[in-house]
Structure formats: structure tokens, C-alpha cells
Design brief:
Shape: globular
Oligomer: single chain
Helix content: under 10%
Distance between the termini: 37 Å
Mean pLDDT: 96
Strand content: over 45%
Low-confidence stretches: none
């Protein structure tokens, strides 16, 4: 059974940094395309960054140069390092495995 569990969100000051973690259970993170999405109230879920099985990443222009995706295959964990945070980065962040698998989401609030 696929399970994704995020952690690491919370309040942060503008200009600060946060690292989100997503522990995957039931499959090998290195074998699948995975990504981070975010959503604010009243809007659809936005893809932020993805990493495919051969390590290639695709990142949204709005976060390019500030956010980095990585994974630790030994820990079966996906990360999102977010630097130089802005108030407009405030959202619920979701870890996703391609195939319509989602974590529960973690709130990041930048003020």
C-alpha cells in the first residue's frame, strides 16, 4: 500500500528557509516520478517541482533558484528545500507520486 507522509511545515519569516520531508512507504522513491505541489484556498493545486526516476528535475518559474527537490534513496524520502521564502509561497504543500498518490499536506505560512 502506497503511503506518503509529509513533515516540516510551519510558520517562517519572509526570506527564511524551510525543508519539507516526505517519507514514502510501499514503494521505492527512486523508481517513480515524484513531486511537490501546493495549494491555496480557492485555487487549484499547482505543481512546484518534480523529479523523475532518472533524476531529472522540472521546476516552476515562480520558485526557480529558490526551491530544490532531492531524494534520499536509503531513507526512501523526498525533500523540498525552500529558501528565500516569500509571502506568496504560503500554501499547503503536498508530496505526490505519479499515479495519483498524495500525502496529507503540510502548511507553510510565510509572513
Amino acid at each position: 500500500q502506497v503511503q506518503l507522509v509529509e513533515s516540516g511545515g510551519g510558520p517562517v519569516e519572509a526570506g527564511g528557509s524551510v525543508r519539507l520531508s516526505c517519507v514514502a512507504r510501499g514503494y521505492n522513491v527512486a523508481a517513480w516520478c515524484m513531486g511537490w505541489f501546493r495549494q491555496v484556498p480557492g485555487k487549484g493545486r499547482e505543481e512546484v517541482v518534480r523529479i523523475d526516476s532518472d533524476g531529472l528535475t522540472t521546476i516552476a518559474d515562480s520558485v526557480k533558484g529558490r526551491f530544490t527537490i532531492s531524494r534520499d534513496n536509503a531513507k526512501n524520502t523526498l525533500y523540498l528545500q525552500m529558501n528565500s521564502l516569500k509571502p506568496e509561497d504560503t500554501a499547503v504543500y503536498y508530496c505526490a507520486k505519479w499515479g495519483n498518490y498524495w500525502g496529507q499536506g503540510t502548511q507553510v505560512t510565510v509572513s
